[in-house]
Amino acid sequence: MEWESRTASGVTLGADNCITQSQKLKGLRLCLDKADDWDFDVFELEKEADGYPLQVLTWHVFQKHNLIDEFNLDRIKLINFLRQVEAGHMENPYHNATHVADVVQSMHCILSKGGLRKFVSRMEVLAGLLAACIHDFEHRGFNNDFLIKTQDDWAIDSNDKSPNESHHLASAWKILRNPEANFIHRMPHAQQVQLRKLVIDMVLATDMAEHMAIVSRLKTDLQKVQHQHLENLIRGLQGAIKIADIGHLYAAHHVHVKWSERLEEEMWLQGDVEKARNMKVSFLMDRDKPGVTKSQPGLAISCLS
Ligand SMILES: [Zn+2]
């Protein structure tokens, strides 16, 4: 089944709409053809995919890597899973389904064109794309520090250990409990266990609190460039998802500026909530002061160095 042969929303259109529909699918196909490019414009995909960029892009790259046939994934249940993942994203300025589609696309590029491609197994490709797809599931636009300070349920449930990332992982994985969305049900148990471990290790690595530790271990590993066992490679995969997560730093300038402005607005929204709760406003989150767009060049330099 080709995803592009359906409308993104699953609505069947009448004959009168055939020409429009055909033009829309052509636009979507042209856009997806560019999904192998580092400087992919995810906002173009958002428009062409009728507001369903996450499920359309993830399905496309799963097909592209032949993961559905190779792992005998259940196509209908995968579609149901992806729909539920996309529906679980709030319309935050930054942490929304379009950002996640962007991260999936960046992960696809890293795994198929980056230096890591020589070392990764097929299971690691599947895990990398799945981790990217769920890595911000149900994000509410607040950072971990805020969740911990306010004793939010997500902080309590995770004992203050990466409250956001722990929630994204656990609640997305629970989707698989629904038999209609359990697309890996035919996968041998040992493979399911391996997949889950890889996805957990990658999504938890997106917590910026782990940034310095991961980068430092990765720098050491990169001096020994042989794929010998999983423990070393997982660090490479953690580095990959972290790079994909800030992939807009190497996007076209106008795309990068748009994401930076959205990040700034989301941070200011958290600052508004902090002010309303009489909390100290977090760094860069006060809309009455210069925001992240003034600091982004510094962030880019520190991330890329
Ligand atoms: Zn993210």
Automatic annotation (TrEMBL):
Quick one: a GO biological-process term for this protein?
Answer: signal transduction
Instruction: Give start and end of each PDEase domain.
Output: 1-305
Q: Gene3D superfamilies from the entry?
A: 3'5'-cyclic nucleotide phosphodiesterase, catalytic domain (1.10.1300.10)
UniProt-recorded Gene Ontology molecular function terms: 3',5'-cyclic-nucleotide phosphodiesterase activity; metal ion binding
Positions with a binding annotation for AMP:
H95, N96, A97, T98, H99, D136, D245, Q296
Residues involved in Zn(2+) 1 binding? H99, H135, D136, D245
Positions of the catalytic residues: H95 (proton donor)
Pfam families from the xrefs?
Answer: PDEase_I
Tell me the keywords, alphabetical order: Hydrolase, Metal-binding
Annotated Zn(2+) 2 binding sites: D136
Looking up InterPro entries in the UniProt record yields: HD/PDEase_dom, PDEase, PDEase_catalytic_dom, PDEase_catalytic_dom_sf, PDEase_CS
Q: Has the keyword Glycosyltransferase been applied to this entry?
A: no
Protein name (record): PDEase domain-containing protein
Give the taxonomic lineage as stored in the record. Answer: Eukaryota, Cryptophyceae, Pyrenomonadales, Geminigeraceae, Guillardia
